[in-house]
Amino acid sequence: MSVETWDYIVIGAGSAGCAVAARLSENAGSRVLLLEAGPSDRNIWIHLPIGYYRTFVDERVNWKYETEPEPYLDNRRIYWPRGKTLGGSSSINGLIYIRGVASDYDYWRQLGNKGWGWQDVLPIFRQVERNVRGEDEFHGAGGVLGVEEPRWRNALSDAYLAAALQAGIRRNPDFNGAKQEGAGYYQLTEWGGRRCSAARAYLQPARHRGNLRILTNALTEKIIVEHGRASGVRYRVGETEHVAKANREIVLCGGAVNSPQLLLLSGIGPAAHLREVGVPVVHDLRGVGENLHDHLQVKSVYRATQAETYNDFTKTLLGKAKMGLEWALKRSGPLTVGGGLVGVFARTRPELADPDIQLHFTPWSTEAVGTTLHPFPGFSVVSNQSRPQSRGRLRLKSPNARDKPSLLANYLAEEIDRTTAVASLKLMRRIAGQPALQPWIAEEINPGPAIDNDEELLAYTRQVSGSIYHPVGTCKMGSDHDPMAVVDERLRLRGVPGLRVADASIMPQVVSGNTNACCIMIGEKAAAMISEDRRAA
């Protein structure tokens, strides 16, 4: 068994892990090992923006998790794609660039997490961005993460935006500006018409550094704790086992699934559960795997009157060739579209201070992402609740790191989540009924006109809804007064020095929107805090 020693070991090369490893390695005096369980990001579908439609179901770059039967979703198992490659989920996601609202982060701060309020994190978001709009109060232009306007839109997407405005929703050209509420086109993490994943943003510029080693296909099986301190990791490449020691710190960046799973495999978590699955207890930490929550999406599907949708563009070899040629020659066209073209952030109740639902308009229709498009012209709109209140948990199924963990989101367990889902379907119908969009709609396929009251809309939600792929919360950040907090405001694991967690798992409450931008910010902030603490020591 080989043993190597590093200053820092970063586990997981996802949205946060890439940022942590790249920033720590900027100090030439620090040796950094970055371990990634998946392969390199050479897959062409990673770099083509619309390629997420392929990687969504590709087990070579995707963990392809699935929940336990969800009791409030008619006992259906819900599919959870998570990235397993350099860049993690930023390499397979829908590219939508959303930070959330100021009150998301102010709430984190109010929970006792000093340094995580909106005014604390906004400078980090600005620092990270290379926004095509240039620098202003809310945006940066000199960062590593490319953020662009959509490079393609058509008459149907313009009609959907116009219909949203007719429905009483204000126009918002910047969801990441002064206010989130409104309707507009999404910005995407693209640059030059190619996906700008965390790997492209952070690792490509850092690869030449002699003090950074990026090791792929390396599954970390255990964090080694000696004399009460995290001192190293055991990982496997193929069938060969290795040990790496950390002189300074280990930073766990596996995401909302893999981070708590690895802690549990290492004997860090609820003692009763660890004993139940046969893992020796190293540190009893109740909150590991708790507080699991996710954005639940429910979809409306429409048959279109005109052949202006992806369903039509992809019917023939000529149509596919035309899209490919436009991307190859101009880096534009339908292949540059992400997981939503037009977005809407709205309030379902007037007394709310911030939007509580998010809509994604897409100019295609299918039964489920990753499956064949409908043979007729069609488009879809999906909604999700911004701040769901239902909570689930993650548990081990066995002490084997290769076995997937047990996931239960408990979607729709809380009444407010159920009423919000129904209200979002009603809003989608209100937008669809506006004059600007009516000429485009031949019929509503789902839910369908026969479903016309709250009880039936809720039943429909239970039957067809699924994840919109934003699981968070399983290593919650919190104060000393929170018995379920796993990390403190410096992201240090409670009770085990030498170990931090930096990824979506630390979010006490999911942000109001897509989570990738926030995860990158968490990685940047973690690296900065580690460097600060090192200098202060």
What is the topology?
Elements: E1 2-11, H1 15-24, E2 32-35, H2 44-47, H3 52-55, E3 65-66, E4 79-80, H4 102-110, H5 118-128, E5 129-131, E6 145-147, H6 155-166, E7 182-185, E8 190-191, E9 194-195, H7 198-206, E10 212-215, E11 218-226, E12 229-237, E13 240-252, H8 255-265, E14 268-269, H9 271-277, E15 283-284, E16 296-304, H10 310-313, H11 317-330, E17 342-346, E18 357-362, E19 378-385, E20 393-395, E21 406-408, H12 415-432, E22 441-446, H13 454-464, E23 466-467, E24 499-501, H14 516-536
Parallel strand pairs: 1-2, 1-13, 2-10, 5-6, 13-24, 14-15
Antiparallel strand pairs: 3-4, 7-17, 8-9, 11-12, 12-13, 16-19, 16-22, 16-23, 17-18, 18-19, 20-21
Helix pairs in contact: 1-7, 1-14, 5-14, 12-13
Question: What's the short story on this structure?
Answer:
The chain is α/β, with parallel strands linked by helices and 537 residues long.
Features:
FAD/NAD(P)-binding domain; Cholesterol Oxidase, domain 2; 2 domains; 7-stranded mixed sheet; 14 helices; globular
Architecture overview:
There is one protein chain. With 537 residues, the protein is α/β, with parallel strands linked by helices. Helices cover 27% and strands 22% of the residues. The strands form 7 sheets. Strands 1, 2, 10, 11, 12, 13 and 24 form a 7-stranded mixed β-sheet that branches. The two termini are 33 Å apart. The mean pLDDT is 97.
